[in-house]
Design goal:
Blueprint (H helix, E strand, L loop, with lengths): L1 E6 L2 H12 L7 E6 L5 H11 L14 E8 L2 E9 L6 H7 L9 E6 L13 E6 L6 E6 L4 H8 L10
Parallel strand pairs: 2-5, 2-6, 4-5
Antiparallel strand pairs: 1-7, 3-4, 6-7
Helix pairs in contact: 1-2
Bound molecules: adenosine-5'-triphosphate and magnesium ion.
The site of magnesium ion has 5 residues, from helix 2.
Protein name: tRNA threonylcarbamoyladenosine biosynthesis protein TsaE
Main location: cytoplasm
InterPro entries: P-loop_NTPase (IPR027417), T6A_TsaE (IPR003442)
Amino acid sequence: MELVVQSLSADYTHALGYNLGKVLRGGDVVCLSGDLGAGKTALAKGIGEALAVQEPMTSPTFTFQIEYAGMAKDKPVRLIHMDLYRLRYPEEVEIIGVEDVFQEDAICLIEWPGIAEDILPDDSLTIRIEGSGEEPRLIGFSSQGEAWAERLKDSMLFEDQEDL
Ligand SMILES: Nc1ncnc2c1ncn2[C@@H]1O[C@H](COP(=O)(O)OP(=O)(O)OP(=O)(O)O)[C@@H](O)[C@H]1O
Ligand SMILES: [Mg+2]
């Protein structure tokens, strides 16, 4: 599956995250790629809002991982937001325990997932954001197989593109 949408503002990227968040459930792993300042955390915050996370979400750049309590379709879920930017060696991925968070009661968002690519589940969703600064963003959604295509269709992610 491969889909691309355009985002002309941080608010729109947040709204895309919100719509995506509404179709997420425990066990999902979402990888967020793109340059520094692309909008990965902006999108993650939209997901957190959709999952009724009450605390303000901050960037886990220095802590690697922050866990929030959320709700997905009226069921409690853990939202685990990771940022692997500062990792240099795959061994560190193991030490931090990235694999341990892939649990059925957790939705996992991973910024800078490259270093962990060998352990990412086959059914994860990858979001790649191109552009930075005040440039428009092209936001690509890709996955192995077509299951995510069905779910994204249900998310209204691709409606209202003309209203950007
Ligand atoms: N269309 C857009 N989508 C997302 N962010 C945008 C857009 N246009 C401008 N911005 C700005 O770009 C910045 C994105 O910052 P954000 O922290 O989300 O990036 P990031 O990809 O998480 O970076 P990092 O790799 O440092 O964690 C924000 O300041 C936001 O206001
Ligand atoms: Mg970030």
